[in-house]
Design goal:
Elements (H helix, E strand, L loop, with lengths): L9 H14 L1 H5 L6 H8 L2 E2 L8 E10 L2 E10 L3 E8 L8 H20 L13 E3 H4 L5 H8 L2 H6 L3 H11 L3 E5 L2 E9 L2 E8 L2 E7 H6 L2 H22 L11
Antiparallel strand pairs: 1-2, 2-3, 3-4, 5-9, 6-7, 7-8, 8-9
C-alpha cells in the first residue's frame, strides 16, 4: 500500500511522487549502475528475492523499527526509463502519517545521493567513537535541533529506565541501559550510522558514531533523531499510559 492508505495521506503521497519524478529524477537514474545489495547494506535494509514484475530491478526493504516497514521498488525499462515506487506494509498504519512520510523522504534523499554519486558506494560501518551532536554540528543547526527535541525533552525526563527498556524491546530496535540518574539508548539507524540518546540529571544528549557524524549532514541526523524520539515516546506511553501527552500522536 502507498501513503494514500494512511490518514490524510493523499497529499503526502503526492509530494513523494513529485520528488521522485521531478526533483530527484536525474539522480535516481544513477541507481541503475549501483550494486543493490551494497546499497541495501548501507541503508540498513535488505534486497528481497521476489520481484512483482520483470522490469523491477530490485526491491529494497527497510524496517527502522516495529511496526514500520517500507519497500522501495526500482523499475527500469530500456524504452520507458526508470521509476521508483515506495510501498508500506499494512501494519505500518500504526505509525502516524507524518512520521511515515518523513522516513520515506529521508530514504529517498539518501537514494538520490547514492544515485548521483554524492555518497560513495563503499562498504562501511558505524565508527568506534561517539560524538555529541553539539561537538561537531555547525551553529546554524541549533534551531533545527531545538525543533527536533522541543517539548520532548521534558517528557523524556519523566520516563523511567524500566519503561524505556520495555519500550525499546517493543520497537525491536536498539538497546537500552540504566545510567546514573537516567537511561541511555543506542539505535542502529543505517548500516553506517548509529545514534545514542542519553537522558539523565544533566539533561538530554544526542550523539552519533564517528563515521556517520562525518558523513551525514545535520538535517539527516536531526530528522532521524526526531523520528526515533517520536517512536520511543509512543511506545513508552503504551507501557505507561499516565505519561502526559504532547499531541494527538505523542
Amino acid at each position: 500500500m502507498t501513503l494514500q492508505s494512511f490518514e490524510a495521506g493523499w497529499g503526502w503521497d503526492a509530494q513523494l511522487r513529485q520528488y521522485i519524478r521531478r526533483k530527484y529524477q536525474g539522480d535516481l537514474a544513477g541507481l541503475v549502475r549501483v550494486n543493490p545489495r551494497l546499497l541495501a547494506r548501507l541503508l540498513g535494509g535488505e534486497i528481497l528475492a521476489a520481484r512483482p514484475y520483470a522490469t523491477v530491478r530490485w526491491v529494497l526493504r527497510v524496517a527502522p523499527f516495529r511496526p514500520l516497514e517500507i519497500y522501495w521498488l526500482f523499475d527500469f525499462d530500456e524504452e520507458f526509463g526508470h521509476d521508483l515506487r515506495v510501498l508500506y506494509a499494512p501494519k505500518s498504519l500504526a505509525v502516524p502519517t507524518e512520521d511515515a512520510y518523513v522516513f520515506a523522504w529521508d530514504y529517498l534523499a539518501l537514494l538520490a545521493r547514492y544515485g548521483r554519486g554524492t555518497f560513495p558506494l563503499t562498504d562501511a560501518s558505524p565508527g568506534p567513537q561517539w560524538l555529541p551532536f553539539s561537538a561537531f554540528a555547525p551553529a546554524a543547526a541549533g534551531p533545527i535541533k531545538d525543533l527536533a527535541l522541543g517539548p520532548r525533552q521534558e517528557l523524556l525526563r519523566l520516563i523511567s529506565p524500566e519503561v524505556v527498556e520495555v519500550a525499546v524491546r517493543r520497537l525491536d530496535r536498539g538497546t537500552s541501559r540504566p545510567v546514573k540518574d537516567g537511561w541511555e539508548v543506542d539505535w542502529p539507524v543505517l548500516g553506517d550510522l548509529a545514534m545514542r540518546l542519553r537522558c539523565d540529571a544533566q539533561g538530554l544528549e544526542i550523539a552519533f558514531d564517528s563515521h556517520g557524524a562525518r558523513k551525514y549532514g545535520p538535517e539527516f541526523l536531526l530528522s532521524f533523531t526526531w523520528l526515533y524520539l517520536n517512536a520511543l515516546i509512543r511506545e513508552c506511553r503504551q507501557v505507561e499510559p499516565s505519561l502526559p501527552r504532547l499531541s494527538r500522536y505523542l
